[in-house]
Amino acid sequence: MGARLTNGIALPGEGKGAKSTLASSVYQQLRDDLLRGALEAESKLRVEWVVSRYGAGASPVREALNRLAAEGLLGRHDQRGFFLMPVSATELEELTRTRCWLEERALRESIAHRTAEWEEQLVLALHRLARAERRLPEDPTTNNPEWEKLHRAFHRALIAACGSHWLIGFCDQLSDQASRYRLISQNAPGTGRDEIGEHRIIAERMLDGDADGAVEALLNHYRLTAAMCMERFAQGYDPKAGLAKARRR
Amino acid sequence: MGARLTNGIALPGEGKGAKSTLASSVYQQLRDDLLRGALEAESKLRVEWVVSRYGAGASPVREALNRLAAEGLLGRHDQRGFFLMPVSATELEELTRTRCWLEERALRESIAHRTAEWEEQLVLALHRLARAERRLPEDPTTNNPEWEKLHRAFHRALIAACGSHWLIGFCDQLSDQASRYRLISQNAPGTGRDEIGEHRIIAERMLDGDADGAVEALLNHYRLTAAMCMERFAQGYDPKAGLAKARRR
DNA sequence: ATCAAGTAGAATCTCGACAAAAAAGCTGAT
DNA sequence: ATCAGCTTTTTTGTCGAGATTCTACTTGAT
To answer: What are phi and psi of B193, to 5 degrees?
Structure first.
């Protein structure tokens, strides 16, 4: 198993010459895959499976798994290994509720402490999001990872001026969880939803300093997304579907 | 944590029941020591030092360190190891502010969804806290670890009925950070503060369903603690003190 | 004296093998 | 057929050695 390292060729996003460790590399890739909903099939996550998939030894893989478990993306039981956190309707509801609480506070603080610099970043984030394609051009049934990145960046830009990196971190964590649900339930295309319009309204009200209006728009945005997820995944998602596939061996 | 293990090798010398995994044991002990402010001297945390102190190999120690870093109690730089998160006045201010935001929401929700069971738990937590000694009987200058446990349990009981384990987890995280500051700056004894009285007032207003009053009492409680910490640690704590000691060699 | 380059030392990080535990499979009796 | 108890297999968790990287120190030149 040759260690196929990705150093030497600097990725465009990694301008800092910081050489990453294997543990961090596995962490990043596995995290992306988790958020992409790429491996929701298996409930259990054997370390040997991760080792063979990402081409690293057991030690860095275990370090990555420990980080993800501490973040709440994975679960862990002593002497029983790691597993993907289960999903459920009640958990989605609780998640959305918590998210609304925190984001409302973050939004209001962000508006109260806005600066010109922050406004420009917000405009920029909205512009980039509007330019990106929602789905992959070659396959309109799958989400565009680039759009997901920009979407997350936009929502982070909204609360960037709230003045608490703790609150920003918590919102990020909840955002990760939410996108996991969104991508598991494969948000249906073209359900008559004007996504970019929703985002634009939120941004405009933010820029106008209309805190109440922005909060209302944002919470509706979250609740609508959650409702669509809930519906689709209450009727369509079968947690045992993946296990059948895993049995082939 | 009531996992009674059928571990034949009792090894009573260790005291701590190293029941499950070494990584979890090191995690628990190191976390306790961090919150106790027991090792704030050195800024850097060499894994070999942890290995020799807690008697485990490098692998479980690294797993424990990764968990703590993901929780925000430690910092980490690739290829540069782990370090204790620095403390500062601005960080304490930001922490306190964030904590007030989250705890206010949690408190209001907890009151709104209170049950008889929850009320009883709260009464119990207050009673236990009132019974415990604030300082160690044999050495009145150091805090009583038992009191710290009960104090944390009381504050968690306040928000236990808020209906979101996410929010509870975030509040716990902030509570950990806050107690780190409190114990670093060695909260002064006998500054005329009626601690048990403050806690009792909060609990009484909670039980009365007086949300506004409870919130006011709780936030004042946090802000007073923070102010005392801030004062003592702005004038008394020198972050370079530990480094100077480290240079002797 | 300051600064740069090169070297020796120390720390981090990773790998492969081993021990311990849990899960799966098997036999035999009720 | 079911279940307890034992054996086999799989998986987790741990250790020690080695490779890679960072840090501190010495040396030499402007």
So the answer is: -100, 130
Question: What element of type H or E holds B212?
Answer: helix B211-235
Q: Do B101 and A63 touch (CB under 8 A)?
A: no
- Answer yes or no: is B78 CB < 7 A from strand C: yes
Asked if residue A56 keeps its beta carbon closer than 7 A to nucleic acid strand C, the reply is yes
**CA–CA separation, B178 vs B73, rounded Å?**
11
A49 CA to D10 C1' in angstroms comes to 13
pTM above 0.85, yes or no: yes
**Cross-sheet strand order for the sheet of B44-45:** B44-45, B81-84, B74-77
Say yes or no to pLDDT of A151 above 70.
yes
Is there a contact between A163 and B94 if contact means CB atoms under 8 Å apart? yes
| Domains of chain A in sequence order | 22-86 (1.10.10.10), 89-235 (1.20.120.530)
| Statement: the CB of A47 is under 7 Å from strand D | yes
Beta carbons within 8 Å of A237's beta carbon, 6+ residues apart: A87, A184, A185
Q: What is the pLDDT of residues B148-159, one digit of tens each?
A: 999 999 999 999
